[in-house]
Specification:
The chain is an all-alpha fold and about 350 residues long. The protein has 16 helices and two strands. A two-stranded antiparallel sheet has the order 1-2. Helix 2 packs across helix 4 and helix 12 crosses helix 13. The longest helix has 28 residues. It starts with 8 loop residues before the first helix and ends with a helix.
């Protein structure tokens, strides 16, 4: 109608007004539905505080974020924080904390935009006068709110306040570049035929080919049997005084473990660690946080030649975990493992609260 001369302002206004009224009615209906209708997919404990308080559109966005958290290999450090920065809603790393604690998502973590379920005009208080007093009152209110929270809520509140005062302390990181997973991956193996249609083996095929069928190289066995591994020196109280000085041929880490365990040959250590890792693939995929890491460690362990290259050295901390699990040993004071990652201090579960003390004390 506006694109030709058949109408005028009055007739256009009538049409537009009818359209606006229809939109107004649709929006009011959606608000009413959000306040009075509880969808079955939002019956989880996480939504208890949000039902009837925020719109269904908000719950749908949170539902998608919660699905990410429930994925088997989700890592909170991979959260891109889009939901928090763009929509003002809890993103995956925040939702993960409430999910692990089995606590509902607080309404305060949802931006006021999503909590407004009416079409009444927003009243903005004029605080331009005597703003200093208003600020002091706001700080006092925040202190009272902080005292009413439990320990986990206080920790979240503290992080948000610290980021406001010191932006450099934020946990936000640049998102990782996307990896193209489509098509056949390029191979870097020398001498491989680029036109070959043979696929790379799957992880379970790789595991089956190694576990139970891995044989220690006879040449390596003969090489080790002919030498005597040095023995460690212990005090009367059983503490390690002098570590064994082993041959530096790339197997030195495994020689050290073999010497400390009283074994005659180092290939036994590689074989034992391969068996431990191969028979507990799902456990170590979760512990290492990466499927690819499990395969890397398996490949690093599968070396029984006289000398080992850099790719087959004793890889810490991953092989340290395998040694502890395989031989049921603990680390003493002064152990060479690196300090605990700071992300673990932030995201570990309550059941692991005492582990750091035991790790540092040996």
């Amino acid at each position: 109608m506006l694109g030709n001369s058949l109408g005028n302002f009055q007739t256009c206004w009538v049409k537009c007004h009818s359209l606006f009224e229809a939109c107004h009615t649709t929006i009011k209906a959606s608000f009413s539905k959000s306040m009075n209708v509880a969808k079955h997919k939002f019956t989880s404990n996480l939504y208890n505080n949000l039902q009837g308080v925020v719109s269904h559109v908000t719950l749908e966005k949170l539902f998608d974020e919660i699905k990410k958290v429930k994925q088997p290999f989700f890592d909170s450090r991979d959260c891109d924080h889009v939901l928090r920065k763009v929509y003002g809603l809890p993103c995956a790393h925040e939702v993960e904390e409430y999910a692990y604690a089995d606590k509902p998502i607080p309404v305060s973590t949802v931006d006021a935009f999503w909590r407004k379920l009416d079409l009444e005009p927003v009243v903005i208080d004029d605080v331009s006068v005597d703003i200093d007093n208003h600020f002091e009152d706001a700080v006092g209110d925040m202190a009272q709110v902080y005292k009413s929270y439990d320990q986990e809520q206080r920790l979240l509140f503290f992080r948000q306040m610290r980021e406001l005062a010191h932006p450099g302390t934020t946990n936000l990181v640049e998102p990782k570049p996307r990896i193209n997973t489509r098509g056949r991956p390029k191979t870097s193996k020398k001498g491989s035929d680029p036109s070959s249609t043979k696929r790379d083996p799957s992880l379970f095929e790789y595991q089956e080919s190694m576990v139970g069928s891995c044989s220690v190289d006879e040449e390596a066995m003969m090489y080790d049997v002919s030498e005597t591994l040095p023995s460690p020196t212990f005090s009367k109280k059983g503490k390690l005084q002098k570590q064994p000085n082993v041959m530096g041929d790339g197997h030195c880490g495994f020689r050290t473990v073999a010497s400390l365990m009283g074994f005659d040959i180092w290939p036994r250590v590689r074989q034992d660690l391969m068996n431990e890792l191969g028979h507990n693939i799902p456990l170590y995929e979760d512990a290492f946080r990466m499927k690819e890491r499990v395969q890397e460690v398996l490949e690093a362990l599968n070396c029984f030649t006289k000398t080992a290259g850099l790719d087959n050295w004793f890889l810490l901390p991953y092989m340290g975990y395998l040694v502890a699990s395989t031989y049921n040993v603990s680390l003493g004071a002064g152990h060479p493992l690196p300090p605990v990652d700071t992300s673990w201090l932030t995201y570990h579960r309550e059941i692991a609260n005492g582990w750091l003390t035991a790790y540092e004390a040996g």
